[in-house]
Write a structure and sequence with these properties.
- The protein has one domain.
- Helices cover about 45% and strands about 5% of the residues.
- The protein contains 4 helices and 2 strands; from the N terminus they run ααβαβα.
- The protein is globular.
- About 20% of the residues are buried.
Length: about 130
């Protein structure tokens, strides 16, 4: 999606994220939108069994995320979520990775108790 649908879709996703977390809480990466870096886990690489290579390629994305200084990384794609979560744990980066749908449900007050696994301590009990 990053390259195929381009900046208009990236702008739509940013609108959704800003609406959910608040404009002041949104920190964009650079480069961004259709020029953003791949997480390194797509195209079947996440399931390929080459974890060392996948993590080495993903280091570019990890460094990009760390440069933002953000407390969370939001991932709209399941492969990106799994790859970035693994990178954060493996390299001990310490930031939670959360699905976009999790934050949407949390903001609507409909996120179940059993759907909070990836939230940090600051958000885990919100709305319960």
């Amino acid at each position: 999606m990053r390259k195929s649908l381009g900046d208009p879709v990236a702008d739509d996703l940013r609108f959704v994220v800003k609406s959910v977390v608040g404009y002041d809480n949104f920190i964009d990466m650079w480069p961004n939108k259709s020029n953003n870096y791949c997480c390194g886990g797509g195209g079947g690489f996440l399931q390929s069994g080459y974890a060392e290579a996948r993590r080495a390629y993903g280091r570019v994305k990890l460094d990009q995320i760390l440069q933002t200084g953000a407390d969370y990384c939001i991932a709209p794609c399941h492969n990106c979520h799994s790859q970035i979560h693994d990178l954060s744990e493996f390299y001990e980066a310490g930031f939670p990775v959360v699905h976009l749908w999790t934050l949407i449900c949390l903001s609507l007050g409909i996120l179940g108790e059993n759907e909070r696994e990836y939230l940090g301590d600051d958000l885990r009990n919100v709305g319960l």
